[in-house]
Amino acid sequence: MRLAAVVSLFASIALAPAALAQTQGGEPAAAPQPAPAESPPSATPTPAPGVSAPPPAGATAPAAPQLAPAESSPSAAPTLGAPPPASTEAAAAPALPAAPTDPGAIRLLNTLESVCIPAANGKELGPLARAAGYRKSGDNYVLKDTGYQFTILPQGSNPNQCHVDILHPVDQESPGKPLVVALHNWAVLTHGWSLYRNDKNVSGSQEFTTRSWETTADGKSEGLVLTTIRKADGSPAQRAADTSEMIYSVTKTAS
């Protein structure tokens, strides 16, 4: 009896779940669902390694990456600085020498410019000398001034030369100094000539102090000489006056 009751109890426990399921759903449990079929492969090809896949249709394209700003092209080579503007102040020209104040030097320069130069270049000597204040004395033309006497010699066989003998005051330190300074300034500083000689020598009983200047331009060579003549011991040739000679010459040069 006891054994039959135990078997009956276990049977009741086994049937309880099925009865409970029928009473809750009223329907038998659903059959298990088969596994879903694999979806067909996408038509979009798989991108190669290293290549980004294109965005799916309808997706907003990502903004284009911003390029780094291009480096500005190198500036043009710097322009070399222009040379500084020329000075507005022109180089000062050498000052002209002061005009001579010695009356003999003034008269000598006037004789050179108004008589000797034009006469040696072909003009007639007489009219030129008279226009400069000279008077005819024999074959010569003479002009006397305070402390001076100028004598223009005839040209003779040297029409391209002009000779002037001068008696002038004695200058113990430098024979004929006012005349030398006036002629040097005229030749070198005013007309650009070159000093050619400046020497002293004794010949026989006489001492010769010589200065000369020369230039070559415009198809001709010009020379100017002043020689002061003294005794061999250096004393004046005359008691109260020195004696000098000025010679101007001009020679045409080959063109």
Protein model, in words:
This protein has four helices and eight strands, in the order αααββββαββββ. It is an alpha+beta fold and 255 residues long. The protein has a domain at 103-252: 3-Layer(aba) Sandwich (Protein Transport Mog1p, Chain A), CATH 3.40.1000. The protein has an eight-stranded antiparallel sheet, covered by helices on one side. β5 and β6 (206-217) form a beta hairpin.
Number of helices: 4
Q: Using only CA atoms, what is the Rg?
A: 65 Å
- Distance between termini? 175 Å
Q: Strand percentage, roughly?
A: 25-35%
What is the strand tally? 8
Query: How would the global form be characterised?
Result: globular
In terms of quaternary structure, the protein is: single chain
CATH fold type of the domain at 103-252? Protein Transport Mog1p, Chain A
Strand order of the largest sheet: 1-2-3-4-8-7-6-5
